[in-house]
Amino acid sequence: MFITKLLGKIGLPVLIKLVKDSLMSIGSEAASNAVNSLGQVDTAIRSKEISVEQIKEANRHIEKITELETDSDLKVLTAINDTIQKELISGDKFVRFWRPFFGYSVSVAWLFTMLTICYCIIADGEHAPQIIMALVETTSLWGVALGVLGISVVKRSQEKASQEKQGVISNVINKIM
User: Fold this and answer.
1) What is the pLDDT of residues 25-64, one digit of tens each?
2) Mean pLDDT, to the nearest integer, of 87-106?
3) Which residue in 12, 74, 100, 138 has the most C-beta neighbors within 10 A?
4) Angle 26-14-175 (CA atoms, 0-180°, nearest 5)?
5) How many other C-beta atoms can be found within 10 angstroms of the C-beta atom of residue 50?
6) Rounded distance, CA 31 to CA 39, Å?
7) Residue 101's Cα: distance from chain center in Å?
8) Considering all CA atoms of the chain, what is the largest pairwise distance in Å, rounded to the nearest integer?
């Protein structure tokens, strides 16, 4: 989603230059290949192999995607707001106060967990890496707890997010060509 918003605001040629410049500093073979590919696209734009109309069409497509994503986000936020508003005006105390109670419970549990982990790491420093890795395993537990509160903490894996960004970029480039 970030990539489409960025593209919608600054346009494809500027984004190509920014990404190319950023990738140059990495120095890996994959980054080098990406820089070369982006350089070819940049050269095609400058030599008018990719017309201004094609770039405008790609930018228009990105703006439409951004608009659709924004509409989708707005619908989700509206539904959450409606739910919370109904809870607030409810006469039933359980309906009105379950979310704050659950939130405070999660906060207290998190505080005790963090204090315990800090104590264990300080008292038994040689096992700190295993303790930290065990803490990572509780991510789904906290994700569910915060999800119940309506806080989205689900993070895609680096690979999936990278594939999605590459898919968006390749779709845009395919549209241009």
Assistant:
1) 787 788 888 888 888 888 887 788 888 788 778 778 877 8
2) 81
3) 12
4) 100
5) 20
6) 12
7) 29
8) 69
3-state SS record for the chain = CHHHHHHHHHCHHHHHHHHHHHHHCCCCHHHHHHHHHHHHHHHHHHCCCCCHHHHHHHHHHHHHHHHHHHHHHHHHHHHHHHHHHHHHHCCCHHHHHHHHHHHHHHHHHHHHHHHHHHHHHHHCHHHHHHHHHHHHCCHHHHHHHHHHCCCCCCCCCHHHHHHHHHHHHHHHHHHHC
Q: How many residues does the chain have?
A: 177
Structure tokens at 33: 């290949």
Q: What per-residue confidence (pLDDT) applies to 166?
A: 57
Tokens of 133: 């890795």
